[in-house]
Write a structure and sequence with these properties.
heterodimer, A: mainly alpha, B: mainly alpha, 2 domains, globular
């Protein structure tokens, strides 16, 4: 049971990670990050069956932070779009020195 | 004033020496504190008036003279020194009554405590330091008084008195300190004040350079002094005078390497401070300072510190006969050498400067011959008549400067070729300077006769024991130097005061006698130049005509007075070298040589006066420098400055230039710059990886996370 859940979680995480690395659309990248978070949530829940309730507790923290992150992240993407008329991450190279 | 007090108090004490009584000092610390307080007060006034002068210059007004700060400085400056003089006299009279055998030492606090080195901040009052204090505060007070008039129109008036008070303080520290390190503090302090006062008019780069030259040349001597202190400490473990002079005869063998090294190193220090060959070159340049400064620092007090040092460390020099002989040689060579230069100088202060160097050479010869009291005696009489000569020259320059200034002439106010016939305009200055000239020329019964002839006598008498040939030669050189002294001083008087007036008719109308505050010190010093020699009439001539057939008072008073200080050195000398000879190298006793000396001096003075007054002297602007042989060499001071320039100054400048061009700019700057550009290029290389692309960062981040994970798993 645990093994299946962990395999699923790993698959989801890998999909999210590759999405973040190879997709260009900022919205998609953002969705992929959410996917990774939830993959981790899945493994938390799976482990909590054997190791105690703390795993589920932690899931709630992750969800809360994810919600806050979604709000902030979407706001940034919207303001970027207003400025550049695009959400393609290849067009942004401001994050340097 | 000093010598007059000496004379009067001494007269009162003759015949009733209460040896061995307890000496009760009276406020000895105050003697130091008063000039220091004067320095602080005048320093504040100098800051206040300096700020005000700057404001006035900014607003376009001329600097104000005769303000509150000005008159306050006029009272505080001389007042502090005068009060110190009064206290010194009180202590001196106290010591006259007691004539204690042991020095009075008072410690105030522990200055240095480190390991087994402990130096007390202590003052020592004994016969030698009190004589020095009398000269410093007495002559110092007179010169402060003279300066009130001389410096009246100077915008830096308060600053001047500030420095002068500080000088008196450090000079007193030098002679009152009870240990070698404290003497060194005073030694450096007077050097600082000398530098500040030589460069007092620092707007003129030449004068500022003269100050630097004095300071740098003195460093060479100071190094020797410092090394001597270190040697003394490593071998004796003590640095206070009492400890050193008690331990030295027991711990250091007679004529041994250590004590000889100490003596020679101390001599190096004394050579620097007292402007002896070969380090004398700073003193003629030091004449760039105000003339009263030349009188006080560069004639009467500071430059005699070397003689004081040797007299104070007499025990060490007596233990090192080679050291003493070197002292005497340096002295005699200097006396003769600088006397020859003085013959062909035209600047009135330069003549006096070379004369001072020459007289200091006599003092060195005296202490080198073991006659410490004779050296100190000449130190004292020389302080009187040379201060008088400088102050008289100051009065002349003051008058000349005013006259030339009012007619907007650009002639040199110090060049004797521009003077002539000043006797008519300045009779009192003329009279006092003639007295000083007769005194320095060594004509009986003036002060210089007794002191200088005593030194020459001892130099001759020292030829009777060890180093006989050497001292015979030195004695001959001293006689020659004494004869030259009479020549150049007579030349100075005749060129300045006699003959036709060469200032020009317009200027001649403006020449005037100096004001009262200048003539009073001149008169007092004139009286001293006559009488101060009488405090030490030798026993051997007391009953001849030179002692006035016993009329002149105080036979060998100074010798007896200094006995407690010099007796241990005298005893060592006696056991090491034997007694002085009874006659001079060519035969003849003290009376015969006194007659020869004074007769010769008189003849030389008269002959020189006749020769110089017949010479046709042109004003400086019309005369050329002498073209022929020896006169040209003397006019150019044996080219010593030029030789030093080639041999010392230029190689040092070349080495410094090499250091700055190659070592500093190429090697050190190159290394630093290389490190800088290496860092910069590494940074540039690193910044290539920073694309600004979020995706790139995410890839690197992921790879990093995977690597760490891999390491953890494996």
């Amino acid at each position: 049971m645990l093994a299946e859940a962990l395999v699923l979680s790993a698959l989801l995480f890998m999909i999210g990670a590759f999405g973040v690395l190879i997709r260009r659309n900022a919205i998609i990248v953002f969705l992929c990050i959410e996917l990774q978070l939830n993959a981790v949530n899945l493994s938390f829940v799976a482990f909590s069956r054997y190791l105690g309730i703390e795993g589920q507790l932690f899931v709630f923290f992750v969800m809360t932070v994810a919600a806050a992150e979604a709000a902030v992240g979407l706001a940034i993407i919207i303001s970027i779009f207003r400025h550049y008329e695009t959400v393609n991450v290849e067009n942004f190279n401001l994050l340097k020195w | 004033m000093t010598g007059l007090a000496l004379l009067l108090t001494g007269l009162a004490q003759v015949g009733q020496p209460g040896v061995g009584e307890v000496f009760e000092p009276f406020l000895p610390g105050m003697i130091l504190i008063l000039p220091l307080a004067g320095f602080v007060a005048n320093g504040v006034l100098a800051l206040v008036s300096g700020c005000r002068n700057a404001r006035m210059i900014r607003t376009g007004m001329a600097a104000e003279i005769g303000s509150v700060t000005h008159s306050l400085s006029s009272w505080i400056g001389p007042g502090a020194v005068g009060a110190a003089f009064v206290l010194t006299v009180v202590n001196f009279v106290g010591m006259l009554g007691a004539q204690p055998h042991e020095p009075f030492v008072q410690g105030y606090w522990t200055w240095i405590a480190s390991g087994n080195l402990s130096v007390e901040a202590a003052i020592q009052l004994d016969q030698l330091s009190l004589i020095m204090m009398m000269v410093i505060t007495g002559v110092g007070f007179l010169i402060h008084l003279f300066s009130v008039a001389y410096m009246r129109d100077d915008p830096g008036y308060s600053r001047y008195f500030c420095y002068l008070n500080l000088f008196i303080f450090f000079m007193l520290v030098l002679v009152m300190g009870a240990s070698f390190p404290l003497m060194f503090v005073g030694w450096e302090g007077v050097g600082l004040c000398s530098y500040l006062l030589i460069g007092f008019w620092f707007e003129d780069p030449e004068k500022a350079d003269a100050g630097k030259k004095a300071f740098i040349v003195n460093r060479i001597g100071d190094l020797g002094f410092l090394l001597a202190i270190f040697l003394l400490f490593t071998h004796l473990g003590a640095l206070d005078y009492v400890g050193v002079f008690e331990a030295a005869p027991e711990s250091l063998p007679y004529g041994g390497t250590v004590v000889t090294a100490v003596a020679l190193l101390l001599l190096l220090g004394a050579i620097g401070k007292s402007a002896q060959v070969p380090l004398y070159v700073w003193l003629p340049d030091a004449m760039a300072g105000p003339t009263p400064v030349s009188a006080l620092i560069h004639a009467a007090t500071m430059v005699t510190a070397g003689v004081y040092l040797i007299a104070r460390a007499g025990v060490l020099f007596a233990l090192a006969p080679i050291g003493s002989a070197t002292v005497a040689t340096v002295g005699a060579v200097t006396a003769l050498f600088s006397a020859t230069i003085a013959l062909q100088q035209y600047d009135i202060k330069k003549v006096l400067a070379y004369s001072t160097i020459s007289q200091l050479g006599f003092m060195f010869l005296g202490v080198g011959a073991g006659a410490y009291a004779a050296g100190v005696f000449h130190l004292m009489t020389h302080a009187f008549f040379k201060a008088l000569l400088f102050l008289g020259a100051g009065a002349v320059i003051h008058s000349m400067h005013h006259a030339l200034h009012s007619t907007h002439s650009d002639w040199d106010a110090q060049d004797m070729r521009n003077m002539g016939g000043l006797k008519r305009f300045m009779p009192l200055t003329w009279a006092t300077m003639v007295i000083a000239t007769v005194a320095i020329a060594g004509i009986w019964p003036f002060a210089g006769f007794f002191s200088k002839d005593e030194i020459i006598w001892y130099a001759g008498a020292a030829a009777g024991n060890g180093y006989g040939v050497l001292f015979t030669v030195l004695w001959g050189m001293a006689l020659l130097a004494a004869a030259l002294t009479a020549v150049y001083m007579t030349r100075l008087i005749v060129m300045t005061f006699h003959g036709i007036n060469r200032t020009g008719p317009e200027e001649a109308k403006l020449l005037h006698e100096a004001p009262l505050t200048m003539t009073v010190p001149l008169t007092i010093l004139g009286i001293l130049s006559v009488f101060s020699g009488w405090i030490n009439v030798p026993d051997s001539v007391q009953d001849s005509i030179f002692g006035g057939f016993g009329i002149l008072p105080m036979s060998e008073w100074l010798h007896h007075w200094l006995d407690p200080v010099t007796e241990s050195a005298d005893a060592i000398r006696l056991s090491g070298l034997g007694p002085y000879a009874e006659s001079a190298p060519l035969g003849g006793g003290p009376v015969a040589w006194a007659a020869i000396a004074t007769g010769a001096a008189l003849v030389i003075v008269i002959l020189t006066a006749r020769v110089v007054s017949r010479q046709q002297i042109l004003p400086a602007s019309e005369s050329e420098q002498p073209a022929d042989g020896i006169r040209k060499i003397l006019y150019n001071k044996w080219y010593v400055d030029e030789i030093y320039d080639r041999v010392v100054v230029r190689p040092i400048i070349a080495a410094s230039r090499f250091g700055s061009r190659w070592l500093d700019q190429v090697l050190i700057d190159g290394t630093v710059n290389a490190v800088g550009s290496l860092t910069r290029s590494l940074g540039w290389f690193g910044s290539l990886f920073q694309t600004g692309q979020v995706t790139t960062y995410a890839v690197v981040f992921t790879l990093g996370a995977l690597t760490i994970l891999g390491v953890l798993i494996l």
